Amino acid sequence: MNVLQITSAGACVTLRLNRPEKRNALNKALLQAIRDALNTLRHERHLKLLIIRSAGDKAFSAGADIKEQTMFTPQQAYDHMRWGQAIFDEIEHFPLPTLAVIDGFALGGGLELALACDMRFATTRSSFGNPEITLGNHPGWGGTQRLPRLIGQSFAREIMFSGLPVSAERALQMGLVNQLFVPETLDAGVCRFAEAICQHYTPALRTLKAVTEAANHTDMERGQQLEASSVSRLWGAAAQKEAQYAFFNKT
C-alpha cells in the first residue's frame, strides 16, 4: 500500500496521507514520500493549489511514528528533527497556496504538518494538540516556532505546556483553523474554495505567495517595495488584460 496517495483534479493536486491503520502517523517513509512529491510538483506549471489531507475520518495525523524514535541517541534525535523541519519548511515555502484539510485529530507532528500549510480547514469532530510534553519533551518539527507566530504566544503556550487537546470550535476562535465544517459538508466546502483559487492566473498566485511570505521576514517598507515590483511585473500580461476586460464587462 502506498503511504501517500497523489491525485489531481484540474489545477489542484491532493496529497493524501494513507496510513489509516496507524492513525496516519508520520513515519520516515511517509515523510520522504511527501518530500519527493513536493520536489516534483513545484515544477508543474499548471498547478494552482496543493491540498494535504488524510485517509479515514479518525485522524489527520497522530503525529510522529514514535516507534521509530524510541532508540534514538541524542544526536540521532537532533538529526531527525532537522530532517523533519526541512520537509515542513518545503511545504511552507511551496511556491503556490497550500491547504491542510483536517478531519479527526491533528496531534504532535500532525499539527506541525498542518501548521506548515498556508491555510487549514477542519471538521467539527477534529481536535488539535501538542502532547509531546507528556512524553517529557516538546515539539521538534517547527511547532514551537510556527504555532506562536500563527495564534500568539499565550494560546500557543497553553497548548504546548498543557499537552491537552483543543476542540475544533476553540481552534477556530484562536485562529488556528480558517474554516470549520460539519463532516458532511467538508468536501463541498473544500471544492468551492479550490474552484475559487483555480480560476486565477497562475503567475499571479505564485507571485502573491512569494510576496505574502516576505511579510514574515522583512520590514514594511521593503515589503511594500516587493509588492509594487511584483504588481509591475504582472502588469500587461495577456491573462491580466483578459481578467481586467472580463471585470469591466460584467453583465
UniProtKB/TrEMBL annotation:
GO biological process, one term: fatty acid beta-oxidation
Pfam families given in the database record: ECH_1
Example GO molecular function: lyase activity
Alphabetical UniProt keywords: Lyase
Family, as annotated: Belongs to the enoyl-CoA hydratase/isomerase family.
Name the record gives this protein: Enoyl-CoA hydratase
Organism: Paramixta manurensis
